[in-house]
Hints:
The chain is α/β, with parallel strands linked by helices. The protein has one domain: Spore Coat Polysaccharide Biosynthesis Protein SpsA, Chain A (Alpha-Beta Complex), CATH 3.90.550. It has nine helices and ten strands. The model is unreliable at 278-283 (pLDDT under 50). Manganese (II) ion is lined by residues 91, 93, 155, 224, 226.
Amino acid sequence: MSNQALLILADKNYIEHAKTVIGAIYSFGRWKDDIVVLTVGWNSEDCHEFNLRGIFTLPVMTQIPAGHFNWNKAAMFNPMLKHWEKVITLDCDTLVLDDINPIIDMVERKDTLYACRSHVPKRFEFDLRKLRRTPCHELQCLLDELDDNKVLNSGVMAYNTDVIGKKVSERKIVELAHRFRNYYKCRDEAVLNLIFPDFVELPQEYNVQTAKMINKIYEGKILHFLSKGWKPWQSWETHEREGLELSEELKENRKRIASKWKWCRKQFDYIFLHEEFKDCGFI
Ligand SMILES: [Mn+2]
């Protein structure tokens, strides 16, 4: 076991996404340390495929309020993660395209979270109209502390696990989820913003947030597709099918990303058949 881990979260529907993300982490991301997958609803066979390749799987045990949003990301702050000193977390709708080790080196403080800025201001994360209609003094005070132009995106985060049990914990996130449940739009991300108004900014190239129909060139060290279940080439194919005009440059960019995505999925199968990844002593 190493003292740093890369952490992803995947439910049963995102097993294939998890494989792509891990393939990218190893190949383009040049990650040599531990990888942990927080699993939701996986059976032992699903886990086995990952464990066989030296990847840890930990089932998420968070008690999620019934009928509410999905709060599984709270598990990214489970005390069990204190086995590692530093952690990088990645969403399953990301694609790593460059070395991610510098992120770990940037984590110097032990009392806060490192993340990139969200492209979305706080007014889209909280239902502010509802807050005006049904005031909540406690939430209002917390929101007043938030700088509208400095809101974190939870797709790529990094922290020293010292922060767990002090400033943040799985339980605290779930508790805040319950307490302000009527006012969230963006769920876990909104809660994390309440807990970490003082987050340290990572360079934006580590979380380039792209929405699926936005016509722009994707460039960055980590692309974040902001829509789980979406694959990069789908948007390109949609454009083709609907006969929408795309510049040649944009088409080329989409094709390039799509082929990298597919290649990373193959890496998952390849890398771990390699001798050095056998018998790693995983869970
Ligand atoms: Mn995401």
